[in-house]
Specification:
Strand 7 (144-145) and strand 8 (154-160) form a beta hairpin. The chain has eight helices and 16 strands. The protein is α+β, with helices and mostly antiparallel strands and 280 residues long.
Length: 280
């Protein structure tokens, strides 16, 4: 009997030690994660500080990716203060950086397109039998959408093969304006407008303040600065309304205008420059 008690005591102590080790490991993992997050936050806040690697400078200016910048530098296509740049070189904010004609020509393959997406077409990752923008835009390859527009919706979809531009445009910190025309299934009350404007709780998230304006009895325009999945449909559903039609008509300074459904146009340099101002 005494032996059994001794054995049980040892097992209990062993279990306690294992539990302590487990908690210690969890604590250490959590601590490492927090330290990593702090480093990322610090790095993000210091990203504009100089001296800075030339490749990073070109990336932050929206000229090209860091990888492409290194290729340009290796090829001797980048000059700093009139001298050929070196790989890994750091520069000051006041330094003059120039791209050669070869580098500029390489970057000319970049294109920015506005597409009027039809209902039934997916923004990306089509499944078997589904259509995507690439089925309509044959002239340009490997275009990525700047934000999504669900299959049931129509209207303005911005696309580009400029990875740096797309990544920055998708960053929520810039609060880019997107305007929609929405039709719902019933008459809209004053309370509906008030809640849509101040923010609607969808599951555990409350949407940011928006701008809303009545267009017709059951139609309104809505300006958002965020883009949660199916956000407008979920906002309306939370208030007891069903969306019958949803059309995006504007993304920042880019308007859909008279562009027909299924058609696309390439943005002018002026439109591109105006868009890029918002991500500097």
């Amino acid at each position: 009997m005494k032996i059994d008690n001794k054995s049980n005591k040892k097992r209990k102590e062993s279990k306690q030690k294992t539990t302590k080790r487990l908690f210690k490991k969890i604590k250490e993992t959590k601590s490492k994660k927090e330290q990593k997050e702090k480093k990322v936050f610090k790095k993000d806040n210091l990203k504009q500080e100089y001296p800075m690697r030339l490749s990073r400078h070109l990336f932050l200016k929206g000229i090209c990716s860091r990888r492409k910048a290194d290729i340009f530098i290796q090829n001797g296509w980048v000059k700093v203060n009139g001298k050929k740049a070196k790989l890994g070189q750091k520069i000051q904010k006041t330094d003059k950086v120039e791209l050669s004609e070869e580098a500029k020509k390489e970057n000319k393959d970049i294109v920015y397109v506005v597409f009027n997406k039809p209902v039934g077409v997916v923004s990306h990752n089509p499944q078997e039998g589904e259509k995507e923008p690439a089925d309509f835009i044959k002239e340009y390859k490997k275009l990525s959408p700047v934000g999504r527009l669900d299959k049931k919706s129509t209207g303005l979809l911005l696309l580009s093969n400029d990875g740096v531009f797309v990544d920055k445009m998708l960053n929520p910190k810039y609060n880019h304006q997107k305007e929609y025309i929405v039709e719902v299934d019933k008459y809209m009350t004053g309370e509906f407008f008030k809640k849509m404007e101040s923010g609607v709780k969808i599951e555990r998230y409350k949407t940011k303040p928006a701008k809303i304006k009545k267009v017709k009895t059951r139609t309104f325009s809505l300006i958002l600065t965020e883009g949660k999945k199916h956000q407008i449909r979920r906002m309306c559903a939370a208030l007891g309304y069903t969306v019958l039609g949803l059309k995006r008509v504007r993304f920042m300074n880019i308007k859909l205008g008279n562009l027909k459904v299924g058609e696309y146009k390439v943005l002018s340099q002026k439109e591109i420059d105006e868009l890029k101002k918002s991500i500097k």
